[in-house]
Amino acid sequence: MRKKVVLACVVCGSRNYTTMKNGKDVAERLEINKFCKTCNAHTAHRETK
Ligand SMILES: [Zn+2]
């Protein structure tokens, strides 16, 4: 089973990315370094609901 998650910049809160994750990964929160247009830099992006 797959679940859609939204990734938000932890610095400014912008929701920049969406991704899918597998059922066995749902329990843990994703945190990925990605480019944020608002911050104009690479920042950590965390899963949000
Ligand atoms: Zn940002």
What does this 3D model show about the protein?
The protein is mainly β and 49 residues long. It has a single domain (2-48), classed as Ribosomal protein L33 (Rubrerythrin, domain 2, Single Sheet), CATH 2.20.28.120. The protein has no helices and four strands. The protein has strands at residues 2-9, 15-22, 31-36, 41-48. The protein has a four-stranded antiparallel β-sheet, with no helix packed on it. Strand 3 and strand 4 form a beta hairpin. It is elongated and about 35 Å long. The two termini are 17 Å apart. The model has no long low-confidence stretch (mean pLDDT 89). The chain binds zinc ion. This is Large ribosomal subunit protein bL33. Belongs to the bacterial ribosomal protein bL33 family. Keywords: Ribonucleoprotein, Ribosomal protein.
Highest-level CATH class: Mainly Beta
Small-molecule binders: zinc ion
Q: What is the strand content?
A: over 45%
Total helices: the number is 0
Which strands sit side by side, in order, in the main sheet?
2-1-4-3
C-alpha end-to-end distance: 17 Å
Number of strands: 4
Tell me the radius of gyration. Answer: 11 Å
CATH architecture annotation name: Single Sheet
CATH topology: Rubrerythrin, domain 2
Q: Residue-averaged pLDDT, rounded?
A: 89
Q: Overall 3D geometry?
A: elongated
CATH superfamily: Ribosomal protein L33
Q: Helix-strand pattern, N to C?
A: EEEE
Overall tally of domains:
1
SS-derived structural category: mainly beta
- Helix share, percent: under 10%
Largest sheet: 4 strands, antiparallel
Low-confidence stretches: none
Pfam families: Ribosomal_L33
Protein name: Large ribosomal subunit protein bL33
Keywords: Ribonucleoprotein, Ribosomal protein
Family: Belongs to the bacterial ribosomal protein bL33 family.
